[in-house]
Amino acid sequence: MKVYLRLAILMVLCFCGLTANVYAQGIKLMRYDEDYSNLKDSSRNFYNVLKFLPFSADRKIYFTFGGEVREEFGGKINEDWVKDQGFNYSILQRYALYADLNIGERLRVFAQLNSALESGSKYGPAPVDEDQLAVQNLFAEYRMINQPENKLALRVGRQEINYGSGRLISVREGTTVRLYFTGAKVMYSSPKFSIDAFVLESDEVNFGIFDNRPSHQANLWGAYSNLIIPKGGNFDFYYLGIRRDQARFEEGIEKELRHTLAMRYWKGGGGFIYNIEAAYQLGKFGPGNIDAWTTAIELGYVFDDLRFKPSVNLRNDYISGDQKVGDGKLQTFNPLFPRGGYFGFNPLIGPSNLIDLHPYITLALTGKLTVQTDVVFNWRYSVNDGIYRPSGNFNAAGSISNHRFIGTTYLLSADYSFNKHLSFSCGGQYFKVGRFIKDIVPLWDNSQFFNAQVSFKF
Fold first, then answer.
1. What is residue 344's predicted lDDT score, i.e. its pLDDT?
2. What percent of the chain has pLDDT over 90?
3. I want to staple 281 with a disulfide (CB 3.0 to 4.6 A). Which of 116, 292, 376, 391 is the partner?
4. Element housing 455 (H / E)
């Protein structure tokens, strides 16, 4: 680990000096979405060469290189609500390096390696904390139509995906190990409408070096579209299908074939913030039927004319749970591949069988420093179903308790951006247990979490 840490520090110091006062576009969540073709005729400083390295005399064939170094310290106290469980910590590291080869205006090949490392935890690394070395992206993309306002492309290979607010399909940026899939995707976009259609498989992610195993079956398929209404906001319409051969809920373990139909409306600007999403799920869980749903509402207002530009927001989620254990039917909502931090940066419960009320306030103290404070109240939707982890996996049975209230999460976080490459974030979380946790954990206690993270992207 010391070698990795020294390498990370060296890279940060070198690139911070080299990239000062040079061109850098906004770095995106999905690195393959970045376009540096406008550097074709730019001055040839080190950073611009890194982002546009010609491979032909006419500069129509070129490479782009980039990557990331992320260091994080996280501390937990009674993380599973168990009294005297004590203090545990993790040192988390993420390293990424990518190369993007553009061959004319039609063809590109994108490759990315990721290394996620964990040390310190007395329980060893969690699956979302360590994947020592993996091919994160490796795809070829052919642009059948490549006009400024009309694009159609086919992408084949291993690829990260992220849609909407990340409630159902997320790359999972908050964890050290990001999600990826392998398969094919067709993408169409115009100024007011876009749609992706895809058939993908997920890997079994292991801790070692190049040891992830493909499933050799379609685990995720569907289509995701976005419609822009000028001055009226944005609509997302989507269908998602998944298959899991050993899906586990409180109802039992069976083969799961599930279909999700959903719609999202979102709008920003003019002070008001809207984000409203609803989804219905049907399908088969073993021999029984699936009948599940969710609704999510987020409303907010940004006071642009006030000092610190305060943003006051309220989220409210209703997420269905199973109504009767053992009847063969399943009403538990499956969040598919969600981003783990939707209910806090170290959430202890996930988006299944849940009702939550989540007010939060954000302040821009300076142009570089933002702070946020949150309170999240959590209840079970059904008293006949248990609680689930942020990934959607089953956590603890709930049929032994008649109480709904799970607990209250208090959060305080801060983010500081030194420049477009280097950022620092930290936060603390306190979870006060409710009657449900007191019923299922004999020696219960409130849990605490805090972390600090430095991230450098180039």
1. 62
2. 81
3. 292
4. strand 447-457
Residues 6+ apart with CB under 8 A from 444: 81, 82, 83, 433, 437, 438
Instruction: Show Cβ contacts of residue 83 under 8 Å, excluding neighbours closer than 6 positions.
Output: 443, 444, 445
Condensed to tens digits (0 to 9), the pLDDT of residues 130-152 reads: 999 999 999 999 999 999 899 99
Distance, in Å, from the CA atom of 26 to the CA atom of 280, rounded to the nearest integer, reads 36
CA 345, 346, 350, 354 torsion-angle sign: negative
Q: What are the respective helix, strand and coil percentages of the chain, to the nearest 5?
A: 10, 55, 35
What are the E-state strand segments in 162-251?
A: 181-189, 193-201, 203-204, 213-214, 220-229, 233-249
3-class SS letters over 267-301: ECCCCEEEEEEEEEEEEEECCEEEEEEEEEEEEEE
Tokens 């032909």 correspond to what residue? 56
- Summarised one tens digit per residue, pLDDT across range 180-206 is 999 999 999 999 999 999 999 998 899
Helix (H, G, I), strand (E, B) or coil at 5: helix
Residue 255: φ, ψ to 5°? -70, 135
Residue 136: partners with Cβ closer than 8 Å, 6 or more residues away: 96, 112, 113, 114, 158, 160, 178, 180
Length of the chain, in residues: 458
Amino acid type, 184: A
Residues 180, 186, 190, 191, Cα dihedral to 10°: -10
* Sign of the torsion formed by the C-alpha atoms of 295, 195, 24 and 230: negative
Burial (CB count <10 Å: 0-12, 13-18, 19+), residue 229 = exposed
CATH fold for domain 46-457? Porin (2.40.160)
- Domain residue extents for the chain: 46-457
Specify burial of residue 189 (Cβ count, 10 A radius: 0-12, 13-18, 19+).
Answer: middle
Single-letter amino acid code for the residue at 296 = A
* pLDDT for the residue 391: 86
pLDDT tens, residue by residue, 423-439:
999 999 999 999 999 99
Mean pLDDT of the 292-318 span? 96
Q: Alpha-carbon distance 393 to 396, whole Å?
A: 10
Q: Which residue(s) pair with 263 in the sheet?
A: 237, 278
Segment (H or E) for 9: helix 2-18
Element (H, E) at 16: helix 2-18
Instruction: Pick the closest to residue 102 from 149, 150, 153, 68 (CA basis).
Output: 153
